[in-house]
Amino acid sequence: MYNQQNSFIKRASILANDIQRILNAEYAVAIGSRRTQIACPYRGLLLDEPTCIAYEIIDKKGLVSKEIIAVGQEAEALKGKVGNHIKVINPVVKGVISDFDLAESMLTYFLDKVVTRFIFKFSPKILLSYPQTATPAQKRQFEELLLVCGARSIDLVPLPIAHNIGGKMRGDTLQGCILVDIGTSRIEASVVSCHRVISSYSVLTGGDSINELITNHLREKYAVIIGPVESENIKLQLATAIYNEELDSKTFYTVDCLDAHFSTPKQIRLSKRELYNVLEQELLKVSYCIKKALESIPPDLAKPLIANGITLVGGGSKIPNLASQLTEVFGLNAKIAENPTQTAILGTKKLLEFKKSKKPVISS
Predict the structure, then answer these.
(1) What pTM was computed for the model?
(2) 200-39-290 Cα angle (round to 5)
(3) Domain of 131, in residue numbers
(4) pLDDT digits (tens, 9 = 90+) for 202-217
């Protein structure tokens, strides 16, 4: 009898601890124009899916509504493959929520996938990373979105700080480093020291702008139409920040497209040299952002910046030879962070772990 009571008390204690853990759970969230990521301390990265939603417009006796068909990865797979009756969109464009209702449906779906439930639904605490150059109105917009989706409370952390903590960078980056985030719709260069953003500068351009340049070039020169999937493939296969005649002159990509006049399927060959000429000026905007961010820094930061150099994060950091180009321009060692597309969410998660362990961030 005594052993049974002990066993019951032990199971009840474990259950109570589980409930307490669930109720006190905090989640790191990063909502980008291309991808949405969610992580939890000690559970790791829980979700990394496209910021994408597909819906069908339903008209019933004059009442028009949007019926959600797919979200995230499933919605992304429908891009360019469905008729006009189904729309596939990114509800976050250039860091701004373009359709609040669809963004709410998407984020609610994502949270429901990863947030631990126990009998009843509860509201989690959220730590959200945001661009350093975001306006107060843009930050409020995302806070309102998370509250509508069921968040109990929301704290904010600037993206450069999250990148700095999550990037596992070499050297004494605590004393100063240059971070360049090349995302889907924004290039942001920041000087970070002692986990504080000293200076930052951004331009609204990035992966989507590059894809748009490719699409427009092919339409104007070859009178052909390509979709978003094919423009992304061209960028991945041919884009480069430095053109090497000896190595790259024989590199071509066969583009699957439609004739702009007759809508018949056709193929054209695109060279690496041609695409380099199309994208050269766009890629120089990375250097421009860094120069602007460096204009207002204290002179004593020169030593740590020379030691730690430039670290590239975001999907655009993977463009071949971009780090080499920046090394040539600035005379500083430029490198790509480990897991460059996940540094923000991993850094945000790590901040929550510091909070739970009561370890000062500054000591990291």
Answers:
(1) 0.85
(2) 15
(3) 16-51+95-168+338-364
(4) 999 999 999 999 999 9
